[in-house]
Amino acid sequence: MRLLGAKSIILSILIFAQGFEYSRTCKCDQQYFCNCSSNHLQHVPKVPANALGLDLSFNQIESININDLSPYSELKTLNLHKNKLRFIHKEAFKSQRNLKVLDLSLNNLKELFSSWFHELKSLQHLNLVGNPYSTLGPASIFPSLVNLRTLQFGSPSLRVVHKNGLDGLTHLEEMTFIGSNLRSYENGSLKAARPIGLVSLSLQNLFQNDPELVSKVLQDVSHPETQLTIKDVTLRTNTSTEPFKEAREGGTKSLSFQNITTSDEAITSLLQFMDGSPLSYIGLTDVHLVGQGWWQKASYTHYENLHTAYIRNLDIQGFFEFSSMIQLGFLLAHLHKVSVINGTVFVIPRETTLLLRKLEYLDLSQNLLSDLTIEPTLFTGLGAYQNLNTLNVSQNILKSLGQMSRLVTNLKRLIYLDLSHNSFVSMPEKCSWPATLRFLNLSSTKLRTMTACLPSTLTFLDLSENDLMVFNQRFPQLTTLILTGNRFMKLPQGKLFPRLHTLLIQRNALRMFNRSSLRRFKNLQYLEAGNNNFVCSCEFVSFFKQDVDRFITLRDGRCNYVCDTPFTLRGDAIESVRLSVFECYMIPAVSMLCSVIIIVLGLIVVTCHKLHVIWYLQMTKAWIQAKRKPAVGRLAKELRYDAFVSYSQHDAEWVEEILVPELESSQPSFALCLHKRDFRPGRWIVDNIIDSIEKSHRTLFVLSEHFVTSEWCRYELDFSHFRIVDEHNDSAVLVLLEQIKKETIPKRFCKLRKIMNSRTYLEWPEEEEKRDEFWSNLRAALQRDECTENAS
């Protein structure tokens, strides 16, 4: 048993250690994708067995053994880019029947083996670029990859390509081939069973050094249905462009160049070699041109099918010596779509615009067009731009929106206009626009206010990333409105947009929205309003969590809707906020709380009254005060009076005319204390009562109906009762002046009630003959005992 326990502990430690390694090196998300990139790993780490994606790029893995990937049979994506792979076991991918994407690029694989791919029936994308293998073929490497759609292979180390290397790839749609140092190429090596949709070739200096080999490659890949892209080349001479005859013969319709250096001579030669081809698209990206644009030697060529020219990141050496484009009329006259992006274009002369009669699409974004040069550039006289429906002049240095509206007014077919990323700042009160305009982009144009300048015919309007706060213009046809990145504090009025379908208003200053504001939008279906300064009131939180989906779809996800206020909830997702009843119903809650407090206080008051709590508190206070006073009389045994007489004012006549003369004139006489006669003037009456009772041997209570109802008699009775309790004596003498019920004496004076129940009290007789006996008994009750007299 001990042995089994030790094994369990060791196993637990191992599992913990593996889990620690996993948590330290990889991060797996809710989509079961594990990112282990850039962790200096030297072997395949442990990840959950149900992982669907595994990124091992930028590590130091040198080998993949037979069992390294076997636990992860659910993988759909495996990225081993930029490792140090030298060895892959022939059955390493045997368990990867569900794998769709495999990246083995930039490793140290010197040979490619078909056994790696035998079980990868589902593989659609394979990248083998940048490995030092020198030969492809002669045996077919990919016969089992029947579903492969994208293949990237080749490297500067590749020297020989045999004919059968790509056999079996019947569904290939995209291929990238790098063969900058290729020495031998067999005809038909890159020719697929059916045309490949996109072929990208990086042959670098082969155009200069071995154009014949390039011709063989182009012969295999050129086809009317294939978009051909040539990368990383230098074309300077006639000889370097001669291989493009094969592209013409193959019927290439789409030809692009990326990262090339060329010259006037090479371009002229290219146009001549491609003369008569069905070329319809020409693309130039990251081009360095050494020349002045003298291409007139190719003016006799025919490019009636060339409809699209795409130029991006054009660098012209000696830019200011570049000639006018008038001589390129044989090309421009047929173009329908032209894009010159980031090409330092600052003007298109009027003479050139006259050649663009067929132009439908013009993109001049990221250039140097200004208010001065835009006038000739958009010259519309003599039929120029008569077919233009899309114009993009974004990211230039334009400043006058009024001028732009005037210039495009004559573009009678203009539908799309992009003026974004300029510096308009202000908007004129009135503008003229073509009646056909439907899409307008004014994002990032530094606008601060809106006027009636914008056309009411729009169906799409982008005003994002400006400084707008108010939107009051009506757009009866608008279906999409983008107001992201402004300063709106509330949603615009829905009645202004009767057909609005989509509203984007993220990153503004929205405080909230509710059902009434959304109901004003008759056709709104999609809303993106995340990343605003929402006030998480009870009403808004309740509406957001329970009812918002009834009105619209939050297309940007609920996680982007967070609280800004109150401070305690700042940064919390509204979806997760839980507000208390007190926070949500403050006024009713406070009212109810106050009502409860009043009721409780009322109950306390009633209870205190019933239980005489106030009286007990008063007595306690008086007792404490009496205890703290210097006991001048009582402690020194200096009693000044035989009795303190407590009586009602209504009984004063009997006390003053009968009781006092009888006792004070008798032998022995009795010293009585009367409040009317013996209380010290100016002193607090309660102090007088306490002091008189303390200095009296007895307290004589003259009880009557009036006594019971007298407030001051009650005080005197209270203090006497307190003395009885405190000193444990029977100093009280009760005289019933008239018959009263014992129940009329307050019940809280239990001691006095007990005295009346247990001891005899004196009654004032109505009969004259019994009064002598009464006085005799009273004198006896008031008589001091011997001990007291000796002490005094």
UniProtKB/TrEMBL annotation:
Kindly report the protein's main subcellular placement as a broad class. membrane
Q: Does the keyword Membrane apply?
A: yes
The cysteines covalently paired via disulfide bonds are C28-C34, C431-C453
For this UniProt entry, what's an example GO CC term? receptor complex
Which residues are listed as membrane-spanning?
A: 585-606
Which topology term describes how it sits in the membrane?
A: Single-pass type I membrane protein
Indicate whether Transit peptide appears among the record's keywords.
no
Alphabetized UniProt keyword annotations: Disulfide bond, Glycoprotein, Immunity, Inflammatory response, Innate immunity, Leucine-rich repeat, Membrane, Receptor, Repeat, Signal, Transmembrane, Transmembrane helix
Q: Which GO terms describe its biological process?
A: inflammatory response; innate immune response; toll-like receptor signaling pathway
- One Pfam family name is TIR
The entry's function note states:
Cooperates with LY96 to mediate the innate immune response to bacterial lipoproteins and other microbial cell wall components. Cooperates with TLR1 or TLR6 to mediate the innate immune response to bacterial lipoproteins or lipopeptides. Acts via MYD88 and TRAF6, leading to NF-kappa-B activation, cytokine secretion and the inflammatory response.
UniProt lists the family membership as follows:
Belongs to the Toll-like receptor family.
Q: Which PANTHER family match?
A: TOLL-LIKE RECEPTOR, TOLL-LIKE RECEPTOR 2
- Name used for this protein in its record: Toll-like receptor 2
Source organism of the structure: Anabarilius grahami (Kanglang fish)
